[in-house]
Each structure stands twice: as C-alpha cells, then as structure tokens.
Specification:
8% strand; 58% helix; single chain; two-stranded antiparallel sheet; SMEK homolog 1; protein phosphatase activator activity; PP4R3-like
Length: 821
C-alpha cells in the first residue's frame, strides 16, 4: 500500500504571484552525488518521473505553514512549496531539513543570513534571542520602533517573529488596543497601527494563524483602521459586521467549513481593502498572506465539492420553478462565486471540479436561468457559462448537440446566448461583447477534437449552420433589405459590427459551411449595404468581411461576386469618400492592390470591364493603372495564344537542358497526330513543300524580332490607344523577303492580312478564308537572310543545323505543321 504520509503536491509561484501545481508525487530525502548534498526528491505517482530535485542548502530559509506546507525560495524569483496530504509526513520532512541545517525542528522557519553583514551577523548570533519590551501602553512607541528597525534584517525579523509567537504578544497588544479605544488615545492607536502593519510584513504563517483566529481578527482589523495618514479613520469593522452579511443559500452543516469561509472572506478583505498598497520593496513581504488565502480557497472548494448533498440541493433549488426570484438570485450568485474560487485550482483539480458540476446538471440549470427575465440573474449565469466555455468548450458543444435532438431551435442553449447578445440593453454592449467572445470560442475549429470514430468539427459546424446561424444573422438581414441600412443608430451599428466580426472569423476558419451559407443566402450583398452606413467603423467591418473572402482566392466566391456585381458598393463608397486620405480610402485601395499583386484574373477583368471609367482618373496610386495593365496582358494572351508558347520556348532555350530530354520532347511533338491541331491553326499546303529551307525561321528568332519591332513602335500604339479608348493588345506583323516591315493594329490590318495580294507574304495560301482566322491570332512571318535575335546563344547553332537535317526527312504534313508555328 502506498505511504500516504509522503504524498505531496509540488507548487511553484508564477510571475502573477499565483501558485502553479507541478504535479502530485511522493517525497523523500537523500544524498545526491550530482548536487553534493542532502536533497529533497519528489517522484510523480503517475509515471515515477522526477518532479523535484532540490538540494537542502544551509542558508536557505524554509517555512512550515498550516502544519502541512513547507515553503522556500531557491532563487530570487523562484518560490517552491510542498503541500502534504498528512501532517505526519510534513513533520518528518521538516525534521530532515532542520537536521541538515542544524536547526531546532520546533521552529517554523529556518534562518536566512543572506543580507547580513559579517559584523551584524556575529552580533545577532551572539545574542540568544530578541527581548521585547513589556507590553504596556506607555511603551507602544518603543515597541513600534523595535518592529520597524527589525524589518530590514531577515535575521532580526526571524527573532522578532519568534519572540512575538512565544510570548503570546499579539493578544496582549490587542488588549491594549481596547484600552486605547476606550480612552480615545489616538497616539497609542497610531502606534498600534504601525506595530500590526509591521507584524504583517514579517510574513510569518504562525503569526497569521493567531491574528486571523476567530477571537483576534476583528481587533486586528480595528488596529488597521487607525492609519495616521488617513483622517478620519475608516470603519472597516462596521462594514464587516453590519453591511456585509453571510448568506447561507444552502445550509452548511460542517462548522469547520463555515469558519474557513468567514476567515477567508475577512483575510481577503484585509488584503484588498485594509492594508495599504504595498510598495515595490514590500510586495514580496506579503507572499505568505497570498499563500494563506490561496490554500484556504483550495480547501473550501474541495470541501464543498465532496459534499454531494450540498451540491444536489443547490441544483435542485436552482431548477425548481417554485423557487422564488430572490432565492434563485442568491443561488446563482453563490454558484458564480463558487466557480470563481475554482480558478485558484490547478488543472487536474479544476478538471475534476467541472466534471462534478457537469454531472450535477449545471448546463440544463443555466438554460433555465438564462430564460428568466431578471437581468442580474442572467448576467451571473453568463459569467458561469463563460467559466465553462473557457475551460471545456467540448463539453458545452456536446450538450448542445444532444439537446438539439429533443428540443426546438428556439430554446437551444446556444440560441439563447445569441438572443441575449442581440437583445443586450447596455448602450456599450458590454454583455454582447462577452457573449460574442464565447460564441467564437465555441465555433473555433482549433479547440475541436478529432477522434477515430467521429470528428467534432464536422458534427458541430453542421449543427451550428443548420440550427443557429439564421438566429445570428437575423438582425443583419432585417437591416439590409434596402440600398441603405434601415436602422443606423449607434447601438444597432455596434451590434452589426459584432455579428460581422464573428462572420469574418467564420470565413477565415470554416470552409464549405460558411461558403454555402454566404452564396445561398446572398449574405455578401446584404453585408455590403452597410458600406453606406454613416458609422465608419461599421462600413469598415463590411469591407473587412469582403476582403477576407477575396483573400481566400476561391473561384466559387469570385464567380458569386462577379455575377452579383458586388464591387459596385465598394467603388461607390470609394468615390463618395472623395479625396479624403483616411482608413476607408486605404482599405479599399489595399483590396484592389491585393487583386493586382495576386493576379486574380477573373476579378481583374471584372473590375476593369465594369468600373474602369470610374477609376481611371485615380493617379495618386498606381493600383488601378496596374490592374488595367494586367487586364491588357490577359487580353493579349487570349488574342495571341501562341505568345505564351513562344515565351515558354524562350525560357526553355535560355537554360541548357539534357540533350536526351530535348530529343524526347521533339519526338513526342513530331509523332503527334494531325487531328490534334487546334481550331484556327494555319496549315501550310503541300505546295509549300518546295520552300527554301532558309525561309524557315527559328521560333525564338521570330518571337524576338517581333518583340523588337513592337517595342520600336510603342509610342505609336499608345497614341492609338488613347484616341480609340480601347486598344486590342494583338498586332499583325508582316515581313517582306527583305528588311521592309509593316506594323498595323488588328482593327486596321484585318483586311490586309487576309488578302491574297498583301505585300511581303509569298507563299500565302490561295484561299483567303483559310488564312484569315489564323492570321487574326498570329502574323505569318517569313524571312530571307539571317535575322539575329536579341539574345544569341552560340550553342543553339548546332541544334539549328541538326533540326534542318531532320527536316529533310520529315513527312510532308509534319513539316507543314512546323512551318506554320
């Protein structure tokens, strides 16, 4: 059987001065060779791994608190604690620590000499202990000075604490407090304030246990009312006895638990309200006070959690329709505070806590409470719900999906939450913001579980879009039936902004669910109505929603946007914004810039074809001109499909490839069937078989020559573009047998290129009809003599020779195809 005496929890103090649970295990002490000394070892009870290995240093101050805690600091900002299951185990390890340090196990703290000078250390160690003045009214000033002078020195603090503890000095001081109050001796009361405040800063658990006992705590609070810096004195005792009332919503039968609740409330009050805010130097001096409250809360939650009768009665009364409203409010407030206390628990304990509440039926109870009219009760229920969602969203999702099989959509828990968000009466929508955050947590796929048998994401999102999404979007759809929002007051705008924020989150994190919903319900068109709102933040929310959709680069969304002309509200808002340089202006330009940079072809064409005239005058950024250029490049590629192939050939010849790869590719091309030719491809008739080999130009040279001529005539083309308003990016190139060239636009040269008698086109087919279609896409280019490309690679000459040799042995049809390319 496991030795429960040695069973401990290991705690470390984090940056927020809260204790973190590092695990449960069994403690032992022994010599560790690596650390060269006796050490404390804690091994995890789950897997035997080492949770703690801490050398017992002679100069480290160890404290024993509340009979089952040992606390110490290993570094300046690294505090450790062992919480024992049994007092006997704590005493046993404490004796080992004292034995190593040579201390008396009867003390509750070992000495710390870190900050002492050698002379002061020698003087203090030479004296057996600190002698306190007799506890009399006329010596209060002397006592106050002694306490104040002892605080800077750790050793003197220790000796002072021992003296106060051993002589029962605190109770004597509290007796004098009564005398001073009866005599209205303000000077004495001010000294007592300084003395009691100094005792708090001694940071000693044994003294706290005396001060916070039932008989002393109210007198201690009384002493702290007489702060010399405050006039008149504060009435803390009056508040605690008359104003603050302890309500037992469910009778607590355990007197120890009841006393612990009273004590914790009062000590928390002392820490938060009575003691002055500690300075930077005093903050660490109150660490034991933090620990005292922390472990008290852990103990209270544990004792309540174990009392099944108490929790059963609590939930029975919460859901009982006969319970009156005032009683129900008290029950809800108790449950809220109970959950708040649970935040002090460590993850393992908190998991057990929420499982207990779940088994008791907390979610059905919350559903009943949220359906009530009392705003305060609903607010408290929302806070409880937030604890549950933040800790275990999967538990909430599972309950909601099970509930949907039995109840109508209107009374589902998640729909109640959405309705409370929509109907929040707070002008600032504080409650709605909180509820929206909870909804986002529930629909976040990042915290959804995936198991072998089922996927929570698929199931829950399917449920949410079927049963809940229509409730969430109802205010949006109701307010966007016209070209402008039907209601445009501030509170409505805030609510719609919250809904849009959640929808934007869904677009980013959900896939086909939100896509189907947006397209089927035409949500984006309705959202863009809000671009006309007088509230800039709402218009920007609508724009952000559309920007998120465009950012996905999903052609389903893009087709939907183009079909419904959903850039119109954005362009209209951009033009209405005028020349103002603001967030709206920048956000709209950024959206169009994204389309340009990412080269989203469908949207680029849609924008230029439908909105170019409205945007062409915007010249303070190059975004729209860049979009126009992208559009023209697209048209050029469409009108000249072989241009892309030429470019690819150019790219391929710029880099040397394996000869075998090149031969394989040529073989595949030459072996292709004649039937694979695209429509409109020019076929050279058999009569051209006799054409001189020198007239066949290498595809690269043809492309480079064409590019050279095109660049040389760029100004003329641009001029024609400005005059005609729209210029096709496709051109006809016709070379004569010499160096004479003609460059004409498509519109002016369509007849010439198709006429049999065009100059510079020897060997053109006899039938004009067979040429017109092909020449409208690509000019027939022939050369005599050696035209040199802009980039000449010597290695290519050999390949050209090889190609010409091959050509002589080619079948007639294959040769014709090569020439026509």
């Amino acid at each position: 059987m496991t030795d429960t005496r040695r069973r401990v929890k290991v705690y470390t103090l984090n940056e927020d001065r809260q204790w973190d649970d590092r695990g449960t295990g069994h403690v032992s002490s022994g010599y560790v060779e690596r650390l060269k000394g006796m050490s404390l070892l804690v091994r995890a009870e789950s897997d035997g791994s080492l949770l703690l290995e801490s050398k017992i240093n002679p100069n480290t101050a160890y404290q024993k608190q509340q009979d089952t805690l040992i606390v110490w600091s290993e570094a300046e900002n690294y505090d450790l604690a062992l919480s024992f299951q049994e007092k006997a185990g704590c005493d046993e390890i404490w004796e080992k620590i004292c034995q190593v340090q040579g201390k008396d196990p009867s003390v509750d703290i070992t000495q710390d000499l870190v900050d002492e000078s050698e002379e002061e250390r020698f003087d203090d160690m030479s004296s057996p202990g600190l002698e306190l003045p007799s506890c009399e009214l006329n010596r209060l000033e002397e006592i106050a000075e002694l306490v104040a002078s002892s605080l800077p020195s750790p050793l003197r603090r220790e000796k002072l604490a021992l003296a106060l503890e051993n002589e029962g000095y605190i109770k004597k001081l509290l007796e004098i407090f009564h005398v001073c109050e009866d005599l209205e001796n303000l000077e004495g009361l001010h000294h007592l304030y300084e003395i009691i405040k100094g005792i708090f800063l001694l940071n000693r658990t044994a003294l706290f246990e005396v001060m916070f006992s039932e008989e002393c705590i109210m007198d201690v609070i009384g002493c702290l009312e007489y702060d010399p810096s405050l006039s008149p004195s504060r009435k803390h005792r009056e508040f605690l006895t008359k104003t603050a009332k302890f309500k037992e919503v469910i009778p607590i039968s355990d007197p120890e638990l009841k006393q612990k609740i009273h004590q914790t409330y009062r000590v928390q009050y002392i820490q938060d309200m009575v003691l002055p805010t500690p300075s930077v130097f005093e903050e660490n001096m109150l660490s034991t006070l933090h620990s005292f409250i922390f472990f008290n809360k852990v103990e209270i939650v544990g004792m309540l959690q174990e009392d099944e009768k108490f929790l059963t009665e609590l939930f029975a009364q919460l859901t009982d329709e006969a319970t009156d409203e005032e009683k129900r409010q008290e029950l809800v407030n108790f449950l809220k505070e109970f959950c708040a206390f649970s935040q002090t628990l460590q993850p393992q304990n908190r998991d057990a806590f929420f499982k207990t509440l779940s088994n008791m039926g907390i979610l059905p109870a919350l559903e009943v409470i949220l359906g009530m009219d009392d705003a305060q009760v609903r607010s408290a229920a929302t806070d409880i719900f937030s604890y549950l969602v933040e800790y275990n969203p999967s538990m909430v999702r599972e309950f909601v999906m099970q509930e949907a099989q039995q109840n109508d959509d209107d009374i589902l828990l998640i729909n109640l939450i959405i309705e409370h968000m929509i109907c929040d009466t707070d002008p600032e929508l504080g409650g709605a913001v909180q509820l929206m955050g909870l909804l986002r947590t529930l629909v976040d796929p990042e915290n959804m579980l995936a198991t072998a048998n089922k996927t929570e994401k698929t199931e829950f999102l399917g449920f949410f879009y079927k049963h809940c999404m229509h409730v969430l979007t109802a205010p949006l759809l109701a307010n966007t039936t016209e070209e402008k929002p039907s209601k445009d007051d501030f509170q409505t705008a805030q609510l719609l902004a919250l809904i849009l924020e959640l929808l934007t989150f869904c677009v980013e994190h959900h896939t086909y669910h939100i896509k189907n919903y947006i397209i089927n319900k035409d949500i984006l068109r309705r959202v863009l109505v809000l671009m006309a709102s007088k509230h800039a933040f709402l218009a920007l929310c609508a724009l952000r929603f559309k920007r998120k959709i465009i950012g996905l680069k999903d052609e389903f969304y893009n087709r939907y946007i183009m079909k419904s002309f959903l850039f119109e509200p954005v362009v209209k808002a951009f033009l209405n914004n005028g020349s103002r340089y603001n967030l709206m202006n920048s956000a709209i330009i950024e959206m169009f810039e994204f389309i340009r940079v990412e080269d989203i072809k469908s949207l680029t064409a849609h924008v230029i074809e439908n909105y170019w005239k409205a945007l062409e005058d915007v010249d303070y950024v190059q975004t729209f001109k860049g979009l126009k250029l992208r559009f023209e490049q697209q048209r050029e590629r469409q009108d000249n499909p072989k241009l892309d192939s030429m470019r690819s050939i150019l790219r391929n010849h710029r880099y040397r490839r394996d000869a075998r790869t090149l031969e394989d590719e040529e073989e595949m091309w030459f072996n292709s069937d004649e039937d694979d030719m695209e429509d409109g491809e020019a076929v050279v008739p058999p009569s051209d078989k006799t054409k001189n080999e020198e007239d066949i130009m290498d595809p690269i040279s043809k492309f480079m020559e064409r590019k050279k001529l095109k660049e040389s005539e760029e100004k003329e083309v641009l001029l024609k573009t400005n005059l005609s308003g729209r210029q096709s990016p496709s051109f006809k190139l016709s070379f004569s047998s010499g160096t004479k060239t003609n460059l004409t636009s498509q519109s002016s040269a369509s007849n010439l290129s198709g006429s049999p008698g065009s100059p510079g086109s020897p060997g053109s087919p006899g039938s004009p009809g067979s040429v017109s279609k092909s020449t409208s896409q690509m000019a027939a280019i022939t050369t005599k003599g050696g035209l040199v490309g802009l980039v000449d690679y010597p290695d290519d000459d050999e390949e050209d020779d090889e190609d010409e040799d091959k050509e002589e042995t080619l079948p007639l049809s294959k040769k014709a195809k090569l020439e026509s390319s």
